[in-house]
Amino acid sequence: MNDLPKQPAVPDPANEFASDNSPIDPRDFRNALGTYATGVTIITAAAPDGKPYGLTCNSFASVSLNPPLVLWSLVVYSSSLTVFQNASHFTVNVLGASQQALANKFAKSSDDKFSGVDWTPGLGNAPVLAESVANFQCRSVNRYYGGDHVIFLGAVEAYTYSAKEPLLFARGTFGRFLTDDEGKKSP
C-alpha cells in the first residue's frame, strides 16, 4: 500500500504549453488568479509616427532592484502589440483610487483613448499620465513569449511617485486599500 499522493502523468514536453492540452479549466483558473489583488496600471508607448498608445494592465511586477527592472505582459492578439514590440520605451503609470474611470477608458478599444487625458511625453515619447500615483519610464530590454502573452522586460530609467492612494483590482472589480485603522469597526 502506498500513502503518497497520486501525481499526474508527466506531460509530454513537446505539448506541455500547447493550447487545449491543459487539464486546467481557463475560466476557473482566471477566477483563482482573481483572488490575488493587484494594482492597476496604464502602460503607454509611442508609435514611430508619435501617436500615443496605452492600455490598462494589472500584470505589472518588479523584477530586480539592482539593476532596476520591471515586467508586464500583453495578450498576443492585442491590436497594439506591434506598437509595444517596436517601441524603444514604455511607461508604467500606476493609477490612483480616483482614476477608475481612466482605467475603464484605457481598457476598451478606441482610437481616442488620450482625448481629454492630461499627459506629457516621457522617454521615447511614451506618455506619462498626470495624477498617477507613480510612473516608471522604461527602456525596452527584452520580450519573452509565454503561452498567449508576450512578457515585456524594461529597465527603469526614470520614475516618480506620491503618497496618493492606489487603485486596486481583485475578483473582477476595482477596490481600495484599507489601513488597519480604517478596517477596524467601532464597538
Automatic annotation (TrEMBL):
Keywords: Oxidoreductase. This is Flavin reductase. The keyword Oxidoreductase applies. GO terms for molecular function: FMN binding; riboflavin reductase (NADPH) activity. InterPro entries: Flavin_Rdtase-like_dom (IPR002563), NADH-dep_flavin_reductase (IPR050268), Split_barrel_FMN-bd (IPR012349). Gene3D superfamilies: Electron Transport, Fmn-binding Protein, Chain A. The keyword Metal-binding does not apply. Residues 1-24 are annotated as: Disordered. It comes from Bradyrhizobium cajani.
